[in-house]
Amino acid sequence: MRAPWLLAGLLLLSVASLIFALAAGSVTIAWSELWAFMSGGEESLGSSLVLELRLPRALAAFATGGMLALAGALMQVLLRNPLADPYILGISGGAAVGALLTMLLGAGGIWLTGSAFGGALLSMLLVFALAHGRGSWTATRLLLTGVVVAAGWGALISLILSLSPDAQLRGMLFWLMGDLSHADDPWPGLLVLVLGLALSLPLARNLNVLARGELQAGALGVAVAPLRVGVYLIASLLTAVAVTTAGSVGFVGLVVPHLLRLVIGNDQRLLLPASALLGGSLLTLADTLARTVAAPQQLPVGVVTALLGVPVFLYLLSRSHR
Question: Domain containing 119 — which CATH number?
Answer without folding.
Answer: 1.10.3470.10
